[in-house]
Give the backbone structure.
Amino acid sequence: MMRVAAVQMNSGPDVPANLSRMQTLVAQAADAGARLVVLPENVALMPSSQESRVHAAEFQGQGPMQQALAEAAAKQRVWLVGGTIPLRVEGDADRVAPALLVYNPQGEMVVRYDKIHLFDVEVPGDSRRQYRESDDFVPGDALRCVQVDDVCVGLSICYDLRFPELYRALVDRGAQLLVAPSAFTAQTGRAHWDLLLRARAVENLAFVIGANQTGVHPRGHQTWGHSKIIDPWGRVLAAAE
């Protein structure tokens, strides 16, 4: 048995403030006995513009965002699924990589997964309405799992949830627990967040952790929250508001 935690945040444009909040919540999860802590997408930065995201982007292995994640994992002695942070892409000055970094309890980064499926959609009823992640991000092209104690954890991010073949491929590689750091919009979240998380659990007979952003963000859009931990039978074991 392993105790796990999903962290829900309302990240904004202030990186130090977001990182401070993250460290507080990881400490609370560790104090509650969590061995594995999953952070939401855009954990360190929900920017007001793409220019500010590019400006804040780090090279892999250096920078305050990665340092804070590593320190949180090491200080609390937990496995930390670091949501996503923007990392620089060689040869592309206008876009960044949406990178999920996993840290072990020694604070070492052990695996990186870049979001494969980018959110290019129009959302009726959403104040922002149109999302074009491909304008901002360079997608990944490789599946990733990580061994946490005796549990194989499959990595995914947000919009990946709509592509069941990705999760079947992760399970074929041995994944027993699937994680989905997310920034699901309020409109799509209200309709499909719970449905997709539970479907991915049931169809793969795997545990699923969905750690989501919540509230209103700098560009005017709203995320859904309702982070959840779900068992292979589709039962919600824990949920946030």
Notes: The two ends are 26 Å apart (CA to CA). The first strand starts at residue 4 and ends at 6. The first helix runs from residue 15 to 31.
